[in-house]
């Protein structure tokens, strides 16, 4: 790889190393640790800015018309280094590279290169796309489907394709055509049950067509080196995932089709070593048992026993993919079986359920920050979404665990919560009239009497305002370079995601603040663009949290590495220029008091340093885990 391309990859590697080092710091005094964090952040910031310049020279300043064949080969090698599934160095940048290569292929009528790029654009966009169908979120789903569908257009004419590699890319596109189709999406649980089952007959036609290709002697003779049996196993695995949505009252032929696939994957487990993760063995056993239960072949208690047997294999100190599956994901399936039992049956399993809940919570808050931290975040996210979809209890501890998985966000929301409580109390003290109507309180005396109680609720609102963002961090890169338009589109979804999930949690204002904290004060800007008006009893809370969110993000001079931190004074002056449009003038006016201004600036600095130290110091981190 040429020097500048390699330099970009090396910078990515160094950023990842420094980020990982932040999570594995040895105990030291507070000031030493904070200085090390600042130094690492400054280095990361410099590397990310260098990467911006490199991407401009290597990619954005180029046009397809001016590229040579040597440029194409260099970019192909660069794209492979940026993103090859298990090694996701920079998916967003790889998508940009493949877009440029696709333009070159179109200009030069290069069919082989075109198909390859369609596949890679679809794969990269799939990983950028926040797909949460049950929340109405599938931002780039149509785009992903379009890439794969175009790449698969020649599936019926494989014999005409001379290049064996291109034939395989056509097959890959063919296999992935429905990957983000909301009618058939089962990989990202949970989806809307009845919508998926309503489309099952259409899925069956797709399944039969795919199976016809995979079993065709014609295609097998044409491509004997292709792993057709693995493709068949994958197809059955995908169809078996409809078990999540099918119910006993659905037509028997649907249950039988899903049962057929569940039996196939269960009886062909020799295929499992061909997959990257050994966790598939446990997943297959759980799927088969659940489908058998839904088909009426085993009882609810037998299903619970099957899943409990898998959970018993869990090592509580195993934080690998295998451990995450058994310690975090299997308990969710056991709980679903437990809640499907009769009252009398539950009595017999109550002790097991309580033990599983205790072990799961302990596992979550003992989890180290290792290479599997993202998978833990993913598992907690799936658990929250699953509970919300199936109306299972959704307590704040699940959101605490989710925030705990991502230290930068955890620090951000804690500091924002501190500021929000502080500013609310000050406003109650000096400008209570500006808060009248909050929580339907229209009396100043009552507001002052309930100040402490309400400040706790406002602290919680700020603490959970960004839970949706943690669920999107796998889809964006916010340390290595400037965020891409596609990634910014994805991250904007965090307000809707957080609001939808927090709707299932008390108190209800948590959801409102999560949804509205990026809307402008005057409702004339911000996101989400389409948003119902904020309920007036919660508008003052939104106004406070919005300002505190901006202050915390812009003035962090310890760990923020994607922008230069501003001084508190400069930031407040900037906020003043936007008072009445983006920010509440009542909240901004609280900084006009010079004594309070100096007090909150001083306390903000001290609080932020303490929270950083608690979060990144190993001994402090363990203490925090124990408190949870």
Question: What layout of secondary structure does this protein have?
Answer:
Layout: H1 3-23, H2 30-60, H3 69-82, E1 83-84, E2 87-88, H4 91-107, H5 111-128, E3 131-132, E4 137-138, H6 141-151, H7 164-175, H8 193-198, H9 200-215, H10 217-222, H11 228-240, H12 252-267, H13 280-294, H14 300-311, H15 321-340, H16 343-366, H17 373-389, H18 396-404, H19 407-430, H20 444-449, H21 451-463, H22 467-470, H23 485-491, H24 494-502, H25 509-516, H26 539-555, H27 568-577, H28 585-588, H29 594-616, H30 618-627
Antiparallel strand pairs: 1-2, 3-4
Helix pairs in contact: 1-2, 3-4, 4-5, 5-6, 5-7, 6-7, 9-11, 11-12, 12-13, 13-14, 14-15, 15-16, 15-17, 17-18, 19-21, 19-26, 19-29, 24-25, 26-27, 29-30
Features:
single chain; 628 residues; mainly alpha; two-stranded antiparallel ribbon; 30 helices; 1% strand; globular
The biggest beta sheet reads:
2 strands, antiparallel
Number of strands: 4
Shape: globular
From the alpha carbons, calculate the radius of gyration and give it in angstroms.
26 Å
């Amino acid at each position: 790889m040429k020097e500048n391309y390699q330099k970009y990859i090396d910078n990515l590697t160094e950023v990842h190393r420094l980020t990982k080092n932040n999570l594995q710091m040895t105990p030291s005094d507070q000031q030493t640790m904070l200085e090390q964090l600042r130094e690492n952040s400054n280095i990361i910031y410099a590397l990310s800015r260098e990467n911006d310049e490199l991407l401009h020279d290597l990619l954005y300043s180029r046009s397809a018309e001016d590229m040579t064949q040597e440029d194409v080969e260099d970019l192909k090698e660069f794209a492979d280094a940026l993103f090859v599934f298990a090694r996701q160095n920079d998916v967003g940048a790889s998508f940009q590279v493949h877009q440029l290569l696709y333009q070159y292929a179109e200009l030069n009528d290069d069919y082989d290169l075109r198909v390859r790029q369609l596949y890679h654009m679809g794969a990269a966009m799939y990983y950028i796309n926040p797909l949460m169908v049950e929340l109405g979120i599938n931002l780039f789903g149509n785009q992903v489907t379009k890439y794969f569908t175009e790449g698969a257009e020649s599936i019926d004419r494989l014999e005409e394709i001379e290049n064996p590699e291109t034939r395989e890319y056509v097959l890959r596109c063919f296999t992935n055509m429905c990957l983000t189709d909301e009618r058939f999406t089962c990989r990202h649980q949970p989806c809307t049950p009845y919508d998926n089952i309503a489309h099952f007959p259409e899925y069956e036609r797709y399944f039969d067509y795919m199976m016809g290709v995979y079993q065709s002697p014609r295609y097998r003779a044409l491509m004997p080196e292709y792993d057709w049996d693995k493709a068949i196993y994958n197809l059955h695995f995908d169809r078996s995932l409809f078990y999540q949505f099918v119910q006993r009252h659905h037509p028997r032929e649907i249950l039988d089709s899903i049962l057929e696939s569940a039996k196939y994957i269960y009886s062909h487990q020799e295929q499992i070593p061909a997959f990257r993760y050994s966790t598939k063995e446990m997943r297959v056993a759980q799927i088969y048992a659940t489908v058998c239960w839904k088909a009426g072949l085993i009882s609810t208690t037998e299903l619970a026993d099957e899943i409990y047997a898998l959970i018993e294999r869990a090592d509580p100190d195993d934080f690998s993919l295998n451990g995450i599956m058994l310690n975090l994901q299997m308990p969710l399936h056991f709980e679903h079986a437990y809640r499907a039992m009769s009252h009398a049956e539950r009595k017999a399993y109550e002790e097991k359920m309580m033990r599983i809940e205790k072990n799961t919570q302990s596992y979550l808050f003992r989890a180290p920050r290792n290479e599997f931290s993202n998978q833990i975040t993913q598992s907690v996210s799936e658990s929250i979404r699953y509970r919300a979809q199936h109306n299972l209890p959704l307590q704040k501890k699940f959101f605490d665990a989710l925030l705990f998985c991502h230290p930068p966000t955890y620090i951000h929301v804690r500091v924002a919560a501190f500021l929000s409580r502080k500013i609310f109390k000050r406003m109650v003290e000096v400008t209570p009239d500006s808060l009248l109507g909050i929580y339907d309180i229209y009396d100043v005396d009552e507001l002052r009497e309930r100040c402490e109680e309400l400040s706790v609720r406002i602290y919680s609102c700020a603490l959970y305002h960004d839970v949706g963002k943690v669920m999107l961090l796998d889809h964006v890169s916010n340390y290595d370079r400037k965020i891409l338009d596609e990634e910014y589109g994805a991250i904007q979804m965090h307000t809707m995601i957080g609001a939808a999930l927090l709707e299932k949690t008390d108190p209800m204002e948590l959801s409102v603040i999560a949804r509205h904290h990026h809307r402008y004060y005057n409702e004339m800007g911000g996101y989400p663009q389409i948003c119902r008006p904020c309920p007036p009893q919660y508008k003052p809370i939104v106004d406070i949290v919005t300002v505190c969110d901006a202050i915390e993000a812009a003035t962090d001079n310890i760990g923020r590495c994607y922008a230069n931190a501003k001084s508190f004074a400069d930031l407040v002056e900037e906020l003043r220029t936007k008072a009445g449009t983006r920010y509440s003038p009542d909240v901004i006016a609280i900084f006009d008091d010079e004594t309070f201004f100096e007090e909150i600036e001083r306390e903000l600095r001290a609080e932020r340093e303490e929270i950083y130290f608690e979060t990144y110091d190993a001994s402090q981190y363990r203490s925090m885990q124990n408190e949870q």
